[in-house]
Amino acid sequence: MCNKTLTILRSHQEHPINKYLHLLRQGLSPNQHTYPSLLKSLSTSQTQHPSQVHSHIFKFGFDSDTFISNSLLSSYSKFGDLANAHQLFDEMRQRDSISWTSMIRGCVKNGMPNDGLRLFYEMRSFGVEIDGVIVVSVLNGCGMVGNVRLGQCVHGSYVECGRVRWDLYIASALIDMYAKCGDCDGARRVFDEMPCRNVVSWTSLVSGYIQCARFQDSVLVFNGMLFEGLEPNLMTLTSVLTACGHLGALEQGRWVHRYINRNGLVLNSIVGTALIDMYAKCGCIDDAFKVFNGLSQKNVYTWTALINGLAMHGLPFQALDLFSRMLKEGIRPNGVTFLAVLCACSHGGLVDQGKMYFNQMLEHYEIKPKLEHIMKLWS
């Protein structure tokens, strides 16, 4: 396909498949550059499945092209279709480092970290070169499954020995891995050894301490970040608000809220939820309501945070009324929502209503109850 045709394809990303078919009907033939461009458009739009392109790749005889296969593999992974990605990967006649990278990243990002780590072991046995992208993906997988030993091996074998370039991206992945594996001291050592730090690395340590339930350390790191003159982003602020809530550090939490307003930061549902949770845990339910009512966008976590706050403040009827409002808004509750609802029923002595909501959780929403749900029901 000529370059002019490729330009047309890229300029019509909203309907890439339809435009591609229209060009074929005009008698233009695809070449090895056509499908990577088309697949990239699909990955951006996420509206049409890569299998539609896959059939044409096979039809026009490009299925043996490693570059095209890698693009297709990446597209399947981004779409979340790991079954087709695995099948394509297994059937590839030739695999390069990009093939392995796409498959490992796809597994980790789609919640299948054990498969990603298994592929990493297999990749090493084939002698494929390990790069920084692979290292970050594997470290993410190690954090998800809590495999600190493999994480330490990757750290020592590929980072400290200089086989991959030590940069902020890898350092932040190391901090995150150690924290998720419960080794916050290891995360701190990585942080202290970094030749330079940015907001991402500071945020990684702030959130890392929270994952290890070391909330005071999280706040101290946040204060150190401010002292260094770095401006926190929304992720940093969300993390420190979580720490403030657990510590009951109302004044620090209020300072963060003022910082958000003073700097004109957009209060999205994530930060809004953290603010609601912080105010509720610090005993300021009215402030939590003000934040809730001021949010233009609310999700299940936002509603759940306030329902839980009301329940914990001994306001069961208000909590259940808010839950009813949530359902009328078309927000689907999750297991944490029902835990908050059962907590409200427990505080209010509403045994029959608690049983009703418990059955509703099972029958209408197909949420499998956990031990804490059962304990709340009978407490």
Written description of the protein model:
Pfam families: PPR, PPR_2. Keywords: Repeat. One of its GO terms (molecular function) is RNA binding. One of its GO terms (biological process) is RNA modification. This protein is mainly alpha-helical and 379 residues long. The chain has 4 domains: 1-93; 95-196, Serine Threonine Protein Phosphatase 5, Tetratricopeptide repeat; 197-297; 301-379. It is 73% helix and 0% strand. It has helices spanning 3-10, 16-25, 34-45, 51-59, 66-79, 82-91, 97-109, 113-125, 132-145, 148-160, 168-180, 184-193, 199-211, 215-227, 234-247, 250-262, 269-281, 285-294, 300-312, 316-328, 335-348, 351-363, 371-378. The N and C termini lie far apart (69 Å).
The total count of strands amounts to 0
Distance between the termini: 69 Å
The sequence of SSEs as H and E is HHHHHHHHHHHHHHHHHHHHHHH
Shape: globular
Indicate how many domains the architecture comprises.
4
Radius of gyration: 25 Å
- Give the class-level CATH name of the largest domain: Mainly Alpha
What CATH calls the topology of the largest domain is Serine Threonine Protein Phosphatase 5, Tetratricopeptide repeat
User: What is the overall pLDDT average?
Assistant: 89
Tally of separate helices? 23
Helicity range: over 70%
Keywords: Repeat
GO molecular function: RNA binding
GO biological process, one term: RNA modification
Secondary structure: elements and pairs:
Blueprint: H1 3-10, H2 16-25, H3 34-45, H4 51-59, H5 66-79, H6 82-91, H7 97-109, H8 113-125, H9 132-145, H10 148-160, H11 168-180, H12 184-193, H13 199-211, H14 215-227, H15 234-247, H16 250-262, H17 269-281, H18 285-294, H19 300-312, H20 316-328, H21 335-348, H22 351-363, H23 371-378
Helix pairs in contact: 1-2, 3-5, 5-6, 5-7, 6-7, 7-8, 7-9, 8-9, 9-10, 9-11, 10-11, 11-12, 11-13, 12-13, 13-14, 13-15, 14-15, 15-16, 15-17, 17-18, 17-19, 18-19, 19-20, 19-21, 20-21, 21-22, 21-23
PPR repeats: 65-95, 96-130, 167-197, 198-232, 299-333
GO molecular function, one term: RNA binding
Keywords: Repeat
